[in-house]
Design goal:
N-utilizing Substance Protein B Homolog, Chain A, 6 helices, 74% helix, globular
Length: 134
């Protein structure tokens, strides 16, 4: 899949993860309600976040300095979960691509401070889950 396709897939996955959080249902439940199945990368991200949610939240909580996961904006939580899933379980996706896409999405859709926060947190998590790449 071309970078533009993955960028769109991440944006779609982020909106669906945010929807799941807003409705307090699993990402796979939101996926099941869609009239048309999204592209494969979007589906992989949603299913991956759903399958690994406790692990992802654990990593986010461990590396978020002075922040509880509940205090983070819902959109940031969804974005971090998706990105941490990619870092921890999609070694085929380059670390730089995961982080830069996440920062771009944070700048576009979240608070003014979210881009810097997401960048720092994902960089720390990447060092932990992909040590051979640093």
């Amino acid at each position: 899949m071309a970078d533009g396709g993955r960028r769109q897939a991440r944006e779609r996955a982020l909106s669906l993860l945010y929807e799941a959080e807003s409705k307090q249902v699993s990402p796979t439940a939101v996926l099941a309600e869609l009239p048309l199945e999204p592209d494969q990368f979007t589906t992989d991200l949603l299913c991956g976040v759903s399958a690994h949610l406790p692990e992802l939240d654990g990593l986010i909580t461990e590396y978020a300095r002075d922040w509880t996961i509940d205090r983070m904006p819902a959109l940031d939580r969804a974005l971090l979960r998706m990105s941490v899933f990619e870092l921890a379980h999609r070694p085929d996706v380059p670390t730089g691509a995961v982080i830069s896409e996440a920062v771009e999405l944070a700048h576009r859709f979240s608070t003014d401070e979210s881009g810097r926060f997401v960048n720092g947190l994902l960089a720390r998590i990447a060092e932990a889950v992909r040590p051979s790449l640093h």
